[in-house]
Amino acid sequence: MLVGVALGLAVGDLAGWKLDRLGERTAGPQTEAAAARAHAREQAERLVRATAELDRERRLGADRIRLLDQAEHTLREAFASMSVYALRANNQSFLQLAKTSLREFQKQVPVDLDHRQRSIDGLVKRLQDTLGQVNTKLQEVETERASAHAQMREQPQTLATATTHLERALQTLHVRGGWARCSCDESSN
Length: 189
What we know:
Blueprint: H1 2-23, H2 29-171, H3 173-188
Helix pairs in contact: 1-2
């Protein structure tokens, strides 16, 4: 298409020049023919150069497109390779960080557990001491209760024995009279 445009320009120039020359009729027909041939040669050479330049530009354009395609392909491969490498390195870094964090946590756990165990042992010791004191107090209270209960058991028997002795004493006359006097004396005081 460009060749046709260039050829059209050349023929148009030639025709325009020819008309200008014909208008000048002062020059001779041979001079005009020689000038027209020279101009036609010049235009043909320009056309050949333009066609050669056009072909060269087409080849260069095709080469550039091929180079760009190759560069794009190379860049895609390089990017894919770098992406895989970066992802692998990132995964390795993450795993290493996770392992380090886990080790630190595992180191901290025994210390924390030991601290908690000591705190619990302290609480248990205080509870044992308090329970020991409560147990001692309960044993004392139980001993006192048992002693009081035993005394209370003995009192009815003692009272029963005293009542029985009093009944016997009152059944005898001379004791009855003495008791009556004591009772009267007490009531009069």
